[in-house]
Amino acid sequence: MNIWREGIVAGVDRESAVCAAFTGLTASVTEDLGPDRIVDTLSSECVRLLPIDSMEVFLPGLKLERYSAAGEKGPARESFETGNDVAVKDLSAEVARWPDYVARMTDLGYAAVSALPLRTMEETVGAVTFLSVETAVLSAEDRRLGQALADVATLCLRQQREVRHYRTLSAQLQSALDSRVIIEQAKGVLAERAGIGVSTAFQRMRSFARSSNSKLSDVAHAVVDGTVDSEKLLRPRGR
Question: Which residues belong to any copy of the ANTAR domain (predicted)?
């Protein structure tokens, strides 16, 4: 079913719908939606705005497991590897070219495909395949719109991945800083309690952590909280 053609009959303004589609995709980054939601939004908007019945996304370049499967040889892989558009008006004529792919698509009821490369800057990271039950190819205008929507979605996916990476890195750095702070605090506490130097206190904590297979930060927390056996901790290892 061509959803967009129904929209024209109902008097829907296509220009407004296209703007809304781009707005929805770009908002996915600020709303911190997962990659599946971004791809789902791309799929629904493409089916709504283009004369297609379904679509597939192939994104090995972004290392998203669900969209990076090797799959069979087909228009998406060819478009990804060559960086060119691949348009097939009648899939039944391409059995020799992509036997497994044609068999799968034919079983699903599709008759034509158009694959477009997905790029971020100058790098091709995947391809999107538009599927139709009718033997037809997309017009140049529809290809440009489909390419633009897919490229925006790809940039959103990449941007979101980078944001999450930096958040993870920031959390790791904060955790390391917190550990360092508690260790420094524990050195002072233990040194004062035992009447030893801070360097000796640190050596005792580190030795205790190794012998008890514990994290140094956990030992430090126990020292500050007073929940560690001080005699065991201060006892030189090997005795």
Answer: 163-224
| pTM to 2 decimal places | 0.60
State which H helix or E strand residue 30 sits in: helix 14-30
Q: Which two tokens stand for residue 198?
A: 């801070």
What CATH number belongs to 68-137?
3.30.450.340
Q: What is the 3-state secondary structure (H, E, C) of 154-209?
A: HHHHHHHHHHHHHHHHHHHHHHHHHHHHHHHHHHHHHHHHHCCCHHHHHHHHHHHH
What phi, psi does 31 have (nearest 5°)?
A: -85, -5
Please tell me the CATH code under which domain 173-234 is placed: 1.10.10.10
Residue with tokens 């996304």, as numbered in its chain: 57
Residues of the chain with CATH 1.10.10.10: 173-234
- Across the 239 residues of the chain, what is the mean pLDDT of every consecutive 10-residue run? 36 70 71 73 84 85 50 83 90 91 91 88 82 86 87 78 69 80 88 85 87 87 82 65
